[in-house]
Design a protein that fits this description.
Elements: H1 12-25, H2 29-44, H3 63-77
């Protein structure tokens, strides 16, 4: 995984707590912040909205295959694809 440097501003008390925690756990601020951010994002992200609804029958019988193909393509545009 590629990492990039960023800067965050924290309340001094929060930074003190973080520094005490990483010293006790023998870990890094980066790993604690990354884990906390992942957890927060996982709990706050909405389920993907699909821009279509397909109900019915098609003469060629491919409706479900077409819908799956469209759903995969749309999910890939939002960064949810397997190759992303």
């Amino acid at each position: 995984m590629r990492t990039v440097r960023t800067t965050i501003l924290l309340d001094a008390d929060l930074l003190d707590r973080l520094e005490r925690h990483v010293a006790r756990q023998r870990t890094t601020k980066t790993s604690v912040i990354a884990a906390a951010l992942e957890s927060w994002l996982d709990s706050h992200e909405q389920a993907p909205e699909f821009p279509f609804l397909a109900i019915g029958r098609r003469s060629h019988g491919r409706l479900s295959l077409d819908a799956r193909s469209i759903a995969r393509r749309e999910a890939g545009r939002r960064g949810g694809g397997r190759g992303a």
